[in-house]
Structure formats: C-alpha cells, structure tokens
Design a protein that fits this description.
The chain is mainly alpha-helical. It has 5 helices and 2 strands. The longest helix has 16 residues.
Length: about 120
C-alpha cells in the first residue's frame, strides 16, 4: 500500500503484488472526462453503486483495475498484459472485490483496520 497516497491499494496475482491507485492526477482526469463504462452512469460513484448493488459488469472490473494499475505507475501495455493474464477469461467474482475496494479507496482513503 502506498504511504504517499491513502487511496492506493494492492492486489496479489500469482506470487506478485501490484499497486493500484485511482487517485493519480491523470486517472482522475480520465475519470472526469470518460468515466467508467456501464449502463447506470459513468462516474466512479455510479460504478461503485453498481458494485454495491451487484450490477457490475466485466467492463467495470477491467476498467477500474486498468486505471488503478496505470495510476500506480504501470505502463498501459503492461497493465493490459496483466489483465489478460489475471482478469479476462477468469471468473468474474475473482477480481470484483479488488475493483470495488479500489473504488471505495478513492472515496474514503486508507482502510480503518490499516495501521501502517
């Protein structure tokens, strides 16, 4: 988890842990211009509402994780490769929790149980 940005989160795929951050300046601009795909609106809040209601899509999961990886400093090409390896073609629920947690982090920052 990033000590600099309380909104950052981590995810472990295989034996590797990756940082994700939706609070990066560039990512926040992308979110304000293009948002996150979905039928109920494009804002991060609308996407979070879809996760809370269980109405999220694979596009929601992929886009949130992609933007989080890029926001933590990963080149877009590398983020796309990771999504191919660990998200696309996998059971949807496997990564839905991580995507939802990343969105929640954008709004509330560091988890209450995180003592770091």
């Amino acid at each position: 988890m990033s000590e600099v940005d309380p909104c950052a989160r981590t995810i472990t795929w295989g034996e590797q842990t990756y940082s994700l951050n939706l609070n990066h300046r560039w990512v926040r601009r992308v979110l304000s211009y293009r948002g996150i795909p979905g039928p109920n609106g494009n804002s991060p809040a609308a996407c979070l509402a879809r996760f809370e209601a269980g109405n999220y899509s694979t596009d929601d999961i992929e886009r949130v994780l992609e933007l989080g990886l890029i926001g933590a400093g990963m080149p877009e090409r590398d983020a796309d490769k990771l999504l191919d390896q660990h998200v696309r073609g996998r059971p949807i629920a496997t990564n839905a929790g991580a995507a939802a947690a990343l969105l929640i982090g954008l709004y509330v920052g560091k988890p209450a149980d995180d003592n770091a």
